[in-house]
Structure formats: structure tokens, C-alpha cells
């Protein structure tokens, strides 16, 4: 069976090399004996998928992607363009959308993730007061909440465009949502989501590395660097800056502190799942040196039920000690890796992955 290869975005300034953000992953992959190809991310985003994949050889066989976030429709174009060249992205377009967008995974994770209500939109449109009132009512109509779109928040503009102190104050809800939509602009993904705010456990004093929640980073970063609709909005999963950990903190805006509702310092674990098995457990990229030990038993059942092959779950522990919560789910191909993490096991697992998901292979008599 052919070993899967990995597609990375090309460096816009040097299309024969991987984008600097992903260069260390490509290097690690090569050390493991794996192969990679390059894609033109800007062409993909612009809807020119055939042009974007022209450096991927014909009949390349099974493929994973590790790169910047793509809107689900652009990912579907990408997958189709590869299929037309005899390649096969191992995460299907519906699988990508299910893990990448909150409405795709919410039903499976309901009860284990903050209660959420969403308002679909076609572009950066502010929902009307009636729609907002109905969404707030679906969350019980009172208490604090946060605002995001189907994929990203503006956590680094916490008070302005993310945190809603009281859902019953519909005028204030409207102001935060309006500002959120304005700031997301053309990058608004899918629609506006309201989620009930939950108190998560904070990092112990002294473990924060200055690049914490509220930093201008993340596994997306909204518009992303230079407007790149990205997977990885900052400078790097163990990246070119090396393992110092502190390098990424420069310029990251610190927002909030330890007080409730400030968005400060929730301890989040990012768990990477392949075919329903956890293949890497580490910190969230915002706090790459944070030690985390999440309890995975319940989440594993849900990840398996979701049925996507390669996903991440961000987990936070409730402040009252009542257990771990799923803050969000993501597609593993476009989730950022924390700076300095050893990703060799993850990459080796991707190389060892079967052509089809285990359950897809389970045909009678086989
Ligand atoms: N329902 C919630 N209750 C409390 N805090 C929340 C809630 N949702 C999000 N947060 C806080 O806001 C941060 C950003 O939210 P979320 O992870 O959903 O958005 P994001 O922009 O996709 O982040 P990422 O950088 O992980 O991609 C979380 O890391 C968490 O600290
Ligand atoms: Mg997050």
C-alpha cells in the first residue's frame, strides 16, 4: 500500500520551498522518510485550485494536507483538483467541513462543550435584533456568553468583540456582535455563533509564557498573517525561531488577567486524533510550555462518533473541578502545533495511516 505524502503551502517568495511556517514540519517529515508536495495557497484561496496544485505530480496517491486554514468550499475545490490528478486527500471535503466548522461537530459534542447557537450568514452581515434575540433565547436568555464565527473568535479583542457579560442585555450583545462582524470582515466564516461562557481553570501563576489566550495567535488567528486564511496564525510550531518559546510572545497582545470574564489564562490541551486514537497530546499553541494532562475517555467516544479521520480537540478543565470540556474541535490538517513540540510521532502516524478509515474498510467478508 502506498505511504501517504503531505502537501504543504509553498513559500510565496520561493515556490519551490515550503512556507517558512511549515518548513520545520517538512524537515521532520523528511527525517522520517516521508515525502511532501507543495501547493499555492493564494491560488487556492482565490478559487484557482487547478493552478494551485500544478506542482503536485500526477497519480500521487494518498495525501494529507498540513497548511493554512481554508474555507470549506475552497477545501472542496482543492480535493477535487487533486482527484483530477489521480491524488486522494485522505480527509474528504465533507469530513473537513464537519471538523472545521462548529455546526459540523456541535451535535456530536453537545453537552460536553459550551451550549451554542448560531446564525448562518452569507458574508460579513450583522444579524438583525430579532435573530440575535432568538439565538440568545436558545441559550437560556441570560448569563455571560462569547461570540465567534463557525471557525474563529476575536479573543484578542475580548471586551470589544468576543465577551458578552449578559445575554439579557440585547443591546450590548448587538454591539459586540456588530464589532465582531466588522473586524472579521471578508474572513467571517459561516455565520455568527453565541456560546454560553464557562469558567475554566487558569494556569498556575508563573507558568504563563506571555503568549497566552488573548494573544494575537491561535490555530487560526482570524484573518491570519498577511490576510492568509490560515491554519496557524503565528510564527510557529517549533518554527524557524527554534525552541526558545519566548520568541513568539513578541507583539502578542495581552488581554485580560485572572478575573472572570477577562478571557485570561484558561489551561487548554490540544489533543490530536487519527482514526479515533490520540496520537499527540500537548498544550494549546497559545501557551506552548503549559503542562496538560486531560482526561480523554469521554472525548474519545465523541471523536469516534464524529467519524473524521484527523482532528484536534481543545480541552479545558472547568474551574469548579467538575471535569474537562471541549472548547472546540478542529481539522487536524489546519490546526497549529505548539512551538517546540515533538511532532515526529504525529507525522509518523500520518505516514502509517491506511488509505481508508478503519470503519470504511470494514466491508463484509474483508
Ligand atoms: N464558552 C466559553 N467559555 C469561556 N471561555 C471561552 C469560551 N469559548 C472560548 N473561550 C475562550 O476564548 C478562547 C478562544 O475561543 P475559541 O478557542 O473558541 O476560538 P478560536 O479563535 O478558534 O481559538 P484558537 O486560537 O484555538 O483557534 C478560548 O481559548 C477560551 O480561552
Ligand atoms: Mg481555540
Largest sheet: 5 strands, mixed
Order of helices and strands: EEHEHHEHEHHEHEHEHEEEHEEHH
User: Given the structure, what is the number of helices?
Assistant: 12
Count of all domains = 2
Low-confidence stretches: 205-260, 360-366
Q: In what range is the share of β-strand residues?
A: 15-25%
Helix content: 25-40%
Number of strands: 13
Mean pLDDT, nearest integer? 85
Query: Shape from CA axes?
Result: globular
Q: Distance between the terminal alpha carbons, to the nearest Å?
A: 16 Å
Q: What radius of gyration results from the CA coordinates?
A: 20 Å
Cofactors and ligands present? adenosine-5'-triphosphate, magnesium ion
Given the helix and strand composition, which structural class is it?
Answer: alpha+beta
Question: Strands, helices and their partners?
Answer:
Layout: E1 5-11, E2 14-18, H1 23-31, E3 36-39, H2 41-45, H3 49-52, E4 61-65, H4 72-84, E5 87-89, H5 93-100, H6 102-109, E6 116-120, H7 129-138, E7 145-149, H8 158-161, E8 163-164, H9 170-184, E9 191-196, E10 268-274, E11 277-283, H10 297-306, E12 310-317, E13 324-331, H11 344-352, H12 358-361
Parallel strand pairs: 1-3, 1-4, 4-5
Antiparallel strand pairs: 1-2, 6-9, 7-8, 7-9, 10-11, 10-12, 12-13
Bound molecules: adenosine-5'-triphosphate and magnesium ion (MG).
Residues 114, 146, 148, 152-153, 155, 195-198, 200, 213, 218-220, 263, 266, 268, 314, 327-328 line the site of adenosine-5'-triphosphate.
Amino acid at each position: 500500500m502506498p505511504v501517504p505524502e503531505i502537501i504543504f503551502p509553498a513559500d510565496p517568495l520561493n515556490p519551490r520551498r515550503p512556507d517558512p511556517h511549515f518548513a520545520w514540519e517538512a524537515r521532520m517529515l523528511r527525517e522520517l522518510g516521508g515525502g511532501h508536495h507543495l501547493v499555492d495557497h493564494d491560488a487556492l484561496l482565490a478559487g484557482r485550485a487547478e493552478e494551485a496544485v500544478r506542482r503536485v505530480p500526477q497519480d500521487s496517491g494518498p495525501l494529507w494536507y498540513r497548511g493554512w486554514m481554508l474555507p470549506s468550499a475552497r477545501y472542496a475545490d482543492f480535493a477535487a483538483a487533486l482527484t483530477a490528478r489521480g491524488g486522494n486527500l485522505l480527509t474528504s471535503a465533507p469530513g473537513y467541513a464537519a471538523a472545521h466548522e462548529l455546526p459540523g461537530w456541535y451535535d456530536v459534542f453537545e453537552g460536553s462543550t459550551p451550549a451554542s447557537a448560531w446564525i448562518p450568514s452569507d458574508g460579513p452581515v450583522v444579524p438583525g435584533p430579532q435573530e440575535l434575540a432568538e439565538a440568545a433565547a436558545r441559550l437560556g436568555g441570560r448569563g455571560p456568553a462569547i461570540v465567534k464565527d463557525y471557525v474563529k473568535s476575536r479573543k484578542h479583542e475580548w471586551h470589544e468583540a468576543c465577551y458578552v457579560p449578559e445575554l439579557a442585555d440585547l443591546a450590548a450583545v448587538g454591539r459586540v456582535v456588530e464589532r465582531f462582524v466588522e473586524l472579521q470582515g471578508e474572513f467571517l466564516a459561516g455565520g455568527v455563533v453565541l456560546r454560553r461562557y464557562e469558567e475554566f481553570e487558569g494556569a498556575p501563576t508563573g507558568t504563563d509564557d506571555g503568549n497566552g489566550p488573548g494573544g494575537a495567535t491561535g490555530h487560526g488567528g482570524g484573518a491570519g498573517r498577511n490576510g492568509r486564511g490560515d491554519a496557524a496564525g503565528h510564527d510557529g510550531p517549533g518554527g524557524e525561531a527554534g525552541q526558545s518559546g519566548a520568541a513568539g510572545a513578541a507583539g502578542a497582545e495581552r488581554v485580560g488577567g485572572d478575573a472572570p470574564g477577562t478571557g485570561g489564562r484558561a489551561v487548554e490541551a490540544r489533543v490530536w486524533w487519527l482514526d479515533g486514537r490520540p496520537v499527540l497530546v500537548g498544550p494549546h499553541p497559545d501557551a506552548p510550555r503549559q503542562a496538560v494532562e486531560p482526561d480523554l475517555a469521554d472525548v474519545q467516544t465523541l471523536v469516534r462518533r464524529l467519524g473524521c479521520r484527523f482532528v484536534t480537540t481543545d480541552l479545558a478543565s472547568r474551574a469548579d473541578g467538575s471535569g474537562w470540556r471541549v472548547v472546540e474541535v478542529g481539522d487536524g490538517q489546519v490546526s497549529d502545533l505548539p512551538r517546540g513540540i515533538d511532532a515526529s510521532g504525529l507525522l509518523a502516524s500520518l505516514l502509517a495511516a491506511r488509505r481508508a478509515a478503519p470503519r470504511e474498510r470494514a466491508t463484509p467478508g474483508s
